[in-house]
Amino acid sequence: MNQVVVAQKREIQEVSSETQDYVTMFIQGQMFGIPVLTVQDVLGVQRITRIPLAPPEVAGSLNLRGRIVTAIDVRLRLGLKQVNRPEETMSVVVEHGGELYSLMVDSVGEVLSLPVNHFEPNPPTLDPLWRDFSAGIYRLDKELLVVLDVQRLLDFGGATRAAG
Amino acid sequence: MDDLLSEFLTETTESLSVLDVELVKLEQNPNDPDILQNIFRLVHTIKGTCGFLGLPRLETVAHASENVLGKFRDGELDVTPEAVTLILTSIDCIKEILSHLEQTETEPEGDDAELIAQLNALADGKAPAAAAEPADDAAAEVEAEAGDEAPSWPVADELLNFDPAEMDGAGDAAAAPAPEPEPEPEPAPPPPPPAVAPPKDKKDAKPKANVPAAAKEGSSKESSVAAQTIRVNVELLENLMTLVSELVLTRNQLLQMVRGQDDSEFVTPLQRLSHITSDLQEGVMKTRMQPIGNAWAKLPRIVRDLSVETGKKIDLQMLGADTELDRQVLELIKDPLTHMVRNSADHGLENTDERRAAGKPEVGKVVLNAYHEGGHIIIEISDDGRGLNSEKIAAKALALGLTTEAEMEAMNQQQIAQFIFKAGFSTAEQVTAVSGRGVGMDVVRTNIEKIGGTIELKTEEGRGTTFIIKIPLTLAIVSALIVECGGERFAIPQISVLELVRTTTTSEHAIERINDAPVLRLRDRLLPLVSLRKLLKLEGEDEAEERGETFIVVTQVGTYSFGIIVDRVFDTEEIVVKPVAPILRHISMFSGNTILGDGSVIMILDPNGIAAGTGEVAMAAAKESAHMAAQRADHVGERTSMLIFRAGSKDLKAVPLALVARLEEIDMSTIEHSHGKPVVQYRGHLMPLVAIDPAHDLPTEGRHAVLVFTDREHSMGLVVDEIVDIIEEVLHVELAANEPGLVGTAVIAGKATDIIDAGHYLTQAFGDWFGTSQQDAFGDREDGKRILLVDDSPFFRNLLTPLLAVAGYEVTSVESADKALQLRDSGRSFDLIISDIEMPGMDGFAFAEEVRNEGRWSDVPLVALSSHATEKDFERGRQVGFNDYVAKFDRDSLLQTLAQTLHGGNA
Hints:
The complex is a heterodimer. By secondary structure, chain A is an alpha+beta fold. Chain A has helices at residues 2-15, 74-77, 128-133, 150-153, 159-162; strands at 19-27, 30-35, 39-43, 58-64, 67-73, 90-96, 99-105, 107-115, 119-120, 134-139, 144-148. The longest helix of chain A has 14 residues, at 2-15. Chain A is globular and about 45 Å long. The relative contact order of chain A is 0.22. In chain B, 42% of the residues lie in helices and 24% in strands. In chain B, the strands form seven sheets. A six-stranded mixed β-sheet of chain B has the order 10-14-15-13-12-11. A six-stranded mixed β-sheet of chain B has the order 27-19-20-30-29-28. In chain B, α1 (3-28) packs across α8 (164-175) and α3 runs antiparallel to α4 (81-104). The longest helix of chain B has 26 residues, at 3-28. Chain B is flat, with a radius of gyration of 35 Å. Chain B starts with a helix and ends with a helix. Classes of the chains: A alpha+beta, B alpha+beta. The A-B interface holds A 47, 49-55, 58, 60-63, 65-68, 70, 97, 99, 101, 154, 156, 159-160, 163-164 and B 241-243, 245-246, 488-489, 536-538, 578, 580-587, 589-590, 593-595, 599-603.
């Protein structure tokens, strides 16, 4: 596990020698980040078509300028309970395997430029589920930012691999 | 210019550009099999097409390069810069010939013996000593110089000199296969004359040989062929489509706004806008659609040439050529289709002599058939040739290490045939110029799977081979019916919708909702219904039921029709099917999704998936019932669909649904009497009616439900009071009954239920009706033939024994294979043995093997009986020695099979 993280860390370092830009977002007060370049769009509340029989994490699909985007409830994906969702949910649209996905979170914050040397591997005590989806942790002044590994977050039981 | 030739030029120029790029990649990654495979395939295609167009010079060069590439692929030759240079030289040579072809429509004079000699030398494993020697033209020299300057990566270097824009173009072209001019509404614009004229000038203006390769390629891009078509990136079309959708959306919103304002000044311009938008939408859609016939256009010629070349008589039939396909899909399946037709004609069909010897008509048939089915486009390519030789394939598969002998043992012919889809597999014994280098079927399959399709293969030795390509409607435009259920909207492809039925609690068509198995009487049949709400586990109560109004979408999949219960039906809409996200692809209920005119996303239901799902629903329901049941089957038993009814008393009665031909409602006042027995006129025949309790007289008025049992042309009606339910259940007859007409009592859905013996009532009806005894009731009697019935289920023994007895057999039944073998050892003999397959202890297969192996029964015909007869079981059954295989409940075919087996096997 640690080796993987180190490898990822090195990758990140290669991309930008000093800082990395992250779009921050919040779920239940926890701050998450995904690299800014992977983000296609940030959306407010959308009309979502529910998809029967889909995994519970799939909130539905929506139309983003003529493209069909699959909405993923990140909260459920992270194993968090579906509490009373704030009225104003927001979504971050990312691309994965040629498809667009909208990651539904509680709110989306600002873009942060974070020094790479503040990056830490996942603490071993982290919930295994989270450890899967987290590429590592950034130490910020007041809080910790969990870097979401979008690829793994969207890889539902290898379904994406199997489907090509 | 000949259409075929111009298409060839376009295609080949494109392939060559790709080749350049791929070769560079190859040189850098000499061991990448994908790149090699791709290169090989491209060259192979060029070669193949040349052969048909009668371009010998081109063909020989391509053939020689292909040989070398083949060696690369098989690992017999190392990929060295020198070798790649030589291949590139030959590609330049091809390019030169092509440009000449384009200008004059003939191959240039001269020969490429030297180049070919070098290629052959290389293929034979000798170092290409004279690799740098110019083979034919200046291009090779350019090549060689580049090689001198940068010995390590000559190709890369050479390519650096190319115009980068051109490289991009090549890349794009590779990614987006050639769109062709839309044949509708106008005929293809430039007729031959203008195409021929300019090349003449060029030919005069240019000295033949001294044009550098790059310049030559540049000129070919702008020449006649290019002028006939405008190449548009499909992505651009895709974007256009998106924009148009947005436009439609906006238009709809505007229309909504002015609706009801008749005097608005916007009305007129909006109407115009609306028209134009619709036309635009249609136009853009059309740019993407093409009849599949376009992809077939060159097949007759190919087949004709092949017929001449091989001396076979071939009749190519093309059906459904106007089936529309998305252009992109069409482009992708075009090559595979050509390839497969070629294969069918070349390898599939025997030559005339062989055909005559096999007693077939001399003219071999290759049939192409395209049609829509259940939201898919199906393309069938069938030939009536020799079929695939499974032995040869099996041997080859073993030789290639694709499987083990043990695994092979367990495979049937169809499974073995599937090996031809593996890479490097060719059934042709010798490599011909036409095909058979193992490029074939694996590439075909890859290409088809790339667009989300499937390819199936059916083959019968001596009878022919059929390939069935199934392409999902991905990207294709379909008309869909929009329905609502549980507050969600869904689209159902119109093509699988037969009709719509509106039902209310009071209308003539009412859903007879009984427990979990709703059915609808529709004209003269009983239509199984499936609730979309339950199937998709939608939330919300049955508001439709409260409203007392629902809609049933009568859907057909193959030959199976069923009704889908929905809350509301809207109108139909033209939709462009888009594939669902990968994470949703496992949900078989949906074939895709789309964006409706109002901008919302909607899921498209897949009737195939729903049909498959109905089975599961039945299973689930049965499981629930089974839970309630006090006693559950210990072992996984066979589920039987039982029709539960009441007749004569309050007790529940049941009969296997499969035995019931129809459910009818008969007006009791129409009953007549013959020989003192009640009959009704039914479908032009007299049908005897029987009451469940002979002590009771039939009611004389009102309509009553009647279970119709049919045997051959005779029908019998069992009058019942009420039909309660249809339940799928593992049957356990708890109490055997001594009463005639009853098999026993079982617990079904938690209630004690009498299982009636349909055989008893049949004999009652026919025995009495036809006079003396049971004789003649079932046609030919098989008097005195002794049958051994082996089945662990008392229910089936009880059901079949009287049935067989009625047909005149003398039946002995035992509950296990062991018991049966005991009978054998005790010296009993039988004329025929019927055995169940799934039995505790020794199963049917083992039993058959045992019987066949030794002892006095080894020649006795064996018939297998099973509730789930798959092809594999069938195959296995045959292998272990069963003479025939019959599905349980299929009485007619059981009796028929018995008669046939007895007469055929023992006569």
